[in-house]
Amino acid sequence: MDDIKLVRRAITADEFIEMRQSVGWDYPEKEVISIGLKNTIFSVCLEKDKEIVGYGRIIGDGAFTLYIQDIIVKPEYQRRSLGIGIMNEIMEYIKKNYAKGTMVCLMAAKGKEDFYKKFEFVVRPNEVYGAGMIQYIDK
């Protein structure tokens, strides 16, 4: 990973906004982001010269339901297997800290499903599971 370091740490709301903007994703208000980030179970960053170039986190109930969220690599650093590094760190953390039967979920960005299949995630719908669903609150 060249001179890019993997660091287990929380990020600030400003860093979170910058990461999401870098890939063209929308984001909630800064105050809401701050609350959500405080409730993150685990997060990992990729840093180059103290700048975050990749990020991922785990959210959930902390016991038997986890969600992998916000796997982001800045566009100029994509196609270097950095996302694989983030996911490997996240999956290692989960396997070390959670029991058999823990449900690990995620919502893949469109066209990124094959990336997550490398980590043994299954696409929904399939013969066993219905489609994943989502709703954003718009006030």
Characterization of this structure:
Keywords: Acyltransferase, Transferase. This is GCN5-related N-acetyltransferase. One of its GO terms (molecular function) is N-acetyltransferase activity. The protein has a 5-stranded mixed sheet. Helices cover 29% and strands 24% of the residues. The protein is α+β, with helices and mostly antiparallel strands. Helix 1 packs across helix 2 (30-38). The chain starts with a strand and ends in a 22-residue tail after the last helix. The chain has a single domain (5-107), classed as Gcn5-related N-acetyltransferase (GNAT) (Aminopeptidase).
Number of strands: 5
Question: What is the highest CATH level, the class?
Answer: Alpha Beta
Please give the count of helices. Answer: 4
> What class, by secondary structure content?
alpha+beta
Number of folding domains?
A: 1
**Per CATH, what is the topology?**
Aminopeptidase
The proportion of residues in beta strands is 15-25%
The strand order across the widest sheet is 1-2-3-4-5
- Which of globular, elongated, flat, extended, rod-shaped describes the shape? globular
- Please outline the major beta sheet: 5 strands, mixed
Helix content: 25-40%
Low-confidence runs of at least 5 consecutive residues:
none
The CATH homologous superfamily is called Gcn5-related N-acetyltransferase (GNAT)
Quaternary structure annotation: single chain
Distance between the termini: 42 Å
| Name of the CATH architecture | 3-Layer(aba) Sandwich
Q: On the 0-100 scale, what is the average pLDDT? A: 94
> What order do the helices and strands follow?
EHHEEEHEH
Radius of gyration: 15 Å
